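Students often ask why we bother predicting the structure of a whole assembly rather than each chain alone. The short answer is interfaces. A chain on its own may look different once its partners are present, and contacts between molecules only exist in the joint model. In this exercise we take two input lines together and write out one structure for the complete complex. Read the inputs first and try to guess which parts will touch.
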Amino acid sequence: MKKHLKVILLIISVTFFQTTTSYANEEVSVSGISYDEIYDPIEPINRAVLNFNFFIDDIAIRPIVKTYKFIAPEPVEKGVSNFFSNLKEPIRTVSFIFQGEFYKSFNSLGRFTINTFTSLGTFDLASKVGMEKNETDFGITLAKGGISSGPYIVIPIIGPSNLRDFSGDVIEYFVDPLSNNVPNREYVAIGNGLNERIEIDEQIDKVRDVSSDRYEMIKSIYYQNRNAQLEEEYIQNLPVPKIYID
Amino acid sequence: MKILFIILSVFFSFSATQASEVSIWFEKESNQFLEIISNNKGTENENFEKYKIFVKKNFATKSIAYGLIGEKIINNSSKIELSIYVDAFTDYLIKTIYKLANSNSSSSIILKDVDIKDDIYILKSEISYKKSSADLYWKVINTGSSFKIIDVIVENTSYFVTKKSEFNKILRKNKGSLSALVKEIKKI
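Now the answer. The structure tokens for the assembled complex follow.
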């Protein structure tokens, strides 16, 4: 546990250090969220990793995903997706406590209890009784604590992230009450990763189809989605073009 | 107090009228869009032409195109260069919408809410296909003679913001050359 604590402290200190430096090159928009210049100091490395990820995806992951989507009926796909989402409820419970969102924390715990005992998490009964799912993670917790995103990073196999969100993932790895108490957690992690890939399969196909620079497109989509989780009036505050009438 | 009440009621009735106008426009155009998506029995060229008419009629292409490159490049470019760019961008917009929509025929688009901020209507809708659905936001302006779309946001991803970062990258890589951008977007 002491070893774990050291790792967590190291990550937190590195991320805090980033707070003072990471926005140096960013052009901040009205809402305080930058879209034009996302801090990306290791872009050449990130691009190489993204190409590697697409290569691995093409030869190994994509065929599995496409076969699974072809074979599995929709209810099975939904059930598997619910199962993995349910496994994240305990860590959501903890994250919400750190964010001071006690009602949401209680809601996550309730959802986990109901869905696990009724269907092992494969059916989202809790939503049907009014306990809607609230997405969060430790990256969001760190952001709400005032820590900026830090540099953009593409992680081999896993995909787009930034220093703050990656730190959040590492913290989650150590503090997740569920994963720390199941045998062979690596298999759960692989299953979860594959499930997440399945869920964004259509989007990835579209990125391949309609992008003039897929690296920039993925980076932009990643930040937009993260910002949407952080900002209440996100849609209203997105930048819009100046109007030119023909 | 009376005057304040009158001003407020005039303001709200004016807003309500505008919101209902944009709702009517949205119902009409979204139904037409669904018809184009689902009626894809023609040749690829015929289907593409339908998208072309729809996009040219409903999107503020010049505003989006100019917004994507920014004031500095607009000021440094000639009228001819800008006109070539706007034409190339319009084709690009049609192609991307065609590719995005054509692979995903949807069964309904329901308008859920209309909000106004800084003279821009934010229309929240829900697009459904089979049992799945997604939130779809439209940012729309009133040009006086019609309503025009300036951005589409699907599940938190804005077309304008995403393309702006892509175009910025191409422009930076090519030292702000608009012709290099045109060449790049014509590849799609």
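Check your guess against this: The beta strands of chain B are 108-117, 120-129, 132-142, 147-154, 157-158.
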